[in-house]
Recover the amino acids of this structure.
């Protein structure tokens, strides 16, 4: 079976009207997300409450760790495309990450554990979602919604993480939460290995790509520049977006009234609102975009992403007003409202951007291109860590106002990039049509 004809054979089987391989991929990613967010939910609290780090030190460690987590996929993507292949990269990366999560049980090994998780992720993260596109033929109508479906699936892990790992860590001891995260990573690895029969074959390495599949130099340059621009905009956006697990978590502890009658809501539970809302809001947005597409009114990807950045900006602006008027004792419902707006904005920008990078990936460079998308997270998390140090240096209301400004800047830049991205998409559509015609003649 050739690599080109493989998607047609795989797509003949259905799992809830999707190829069963998509279920294997998002279940694997779901447990990886469970382990990552389970540990990340506890990390700032663990450093400030157990290890007695100062707030600025803890924020810097948090920002550097999350940034490194998204930097290593650049190297891992190249290794996957050129040498290991995507399947072996996923298996090796997941095994290393599992070890890292269990090392979190030792306070003395904190930095070694964080390094192991980041290194394993370098192989895992770009190699898993880069397999999605190969599950579908180019003319498969389900292909357009694959990343939305995938994004919903992995957010189940994000929902469970603070509820399981956060609750265990906060009520029974931090190491119980970290241990649960490690078990989740092992489950993801087992699902991937036992479900490998449903996954697509390896793509050819760059040196093995047929000349007919290689992109003309001018088209490649336009595509790379468009993706570079999108990546830089997302990097700015993440400077504000990544505060959800950093300073927003701190505000939930010190600036929020978490009482619900006689019950005090655990601060880690608020981290579950975002993935819960992703699960419920995604079908509504997909229905809306499908309806708009039917009437020719669906916004372009860059316009959607700009809208998302503006919505996130409005969420931070709301918190700025609330904190200024509540004098440090805001009702917990305001944070719930923040996450509602925040999640709507996220759905307009993050899954859209991931799908855009996947569609525009040159032949033989799928994992590397996906890694480039996550590299924007590297820069964005470094920026978020640096911005997080302002939390103790200015009032909380002023800090939230600055974050709103950062998100507005990202939205304006994305809107300006729309024509360049539209041209790259149009050229890619032509190339896809040409490859599909080649398939039909064989």
């Amino acid at each position: 079976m050739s690599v080109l004809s493989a998607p047609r054979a795989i797509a003949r089987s259905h799992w809830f009207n999707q190829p069963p391989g998509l279920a294997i991929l998002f279940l694997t990613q779901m447990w990886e997300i469970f382990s990552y967010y389970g540990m990340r939910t506890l990390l700032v609290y663990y450093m400030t409450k157990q290890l007695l780090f100062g707030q600025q030190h803890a924020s810097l460690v948090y920002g550097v760790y999350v940034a490194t987590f998204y930097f290593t996929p650049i190297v891992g993507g190249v290794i996957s495309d050129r040498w290991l292949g995507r399947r072996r990269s996923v298996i090796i990366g997941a095994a290393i990450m599992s070890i890292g999560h269990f090392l979190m049980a030792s306070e003395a090994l904190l930095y070694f554990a964080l390094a192991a998780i980041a290194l394993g992720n370098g192989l895992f993260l770009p190699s898993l979602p880069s397999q999605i596109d190969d599950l579908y033929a180019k003319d498969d109508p389900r292909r357009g919604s694959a990343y939305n479906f995938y994004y919903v699936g992995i957010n189940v892990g994000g929902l469970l993480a603070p509820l399981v790992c956060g609750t265990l860590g906060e009520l029974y001891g931090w190491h119980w939460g970290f241990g649960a995260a490690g078990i989740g990573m092992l489950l993801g690895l087992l699902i991937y290995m036992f479900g490998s029969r449903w996954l697509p074959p390896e793509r050819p390495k760059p040196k093995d790509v047929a000349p007919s599949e290689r992109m003309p130099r001018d088209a490649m340059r336009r595509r790379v520049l468009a993706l570079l621009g999108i990546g830089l905009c997302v990097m700015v956006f993440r400077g504000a977006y990544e505060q959800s697990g950093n300073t927003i978590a701190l505000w939930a502890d010190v600036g929020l009234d978490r009482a619900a009658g006689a019950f005090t809501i655990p601060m880690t539970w608020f981290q579950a609102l975002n993935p819960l809302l992703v699960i419920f809001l995604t079908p509504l947005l997909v229905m809306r975009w499908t309806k708009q597409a039917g009437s020719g009114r669906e916004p372009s990807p860059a316009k959607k992403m700009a809208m998302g950045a503006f919505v996130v900006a409005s969420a931070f602006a709301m918190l700025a007003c609330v904190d200024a008027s509540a004098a440090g004792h805001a009702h917990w419902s305001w944070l719930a409202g923040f996450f509602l707006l925040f999640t709507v904005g996220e759905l307009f920008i993050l899954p859209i951007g991931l799908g855009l990078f996947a569609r525009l990936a040159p032949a033989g460079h799928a994992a590397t291109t996906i890694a480039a998308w996550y590299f924007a997270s590297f820069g964005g998390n470094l920026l978020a860590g640096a911005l997080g140090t302002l939390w103790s240096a200015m009032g909380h209301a002023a800090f939230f106002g600055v974050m709103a400004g950062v998100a507005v800047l990202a939205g304006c830049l994305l809107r300006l990039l729309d024509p360049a991205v539209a041209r790259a998409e149009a050229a890619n559509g032509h190339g896809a049509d040409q490859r599909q015609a080649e398939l039909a003649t064989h």
Remarks:
- Residues 396-440 form the longest helix (45 residues).
- Strands lie at 256-257, 259-260, 263-264, 330-331.
